[in-house]
Fold:
Amino acid sequence: MLFLVAALLLLGVLLGAVAHAPLAFTVVAASVITVWLGVFAARERLARRH
Structure:
């Protein structure tokens, strides 16, 4: 999953609107998305165990 986030971030930097945003904003946004996906994955995994 982290590989996917890194690949999308790299693609966005190279081709997308992220290229026009400051690097600090891009890193913060990528971190927020990574945490959000991690929380979602953890909740889904816990839900399947019960």
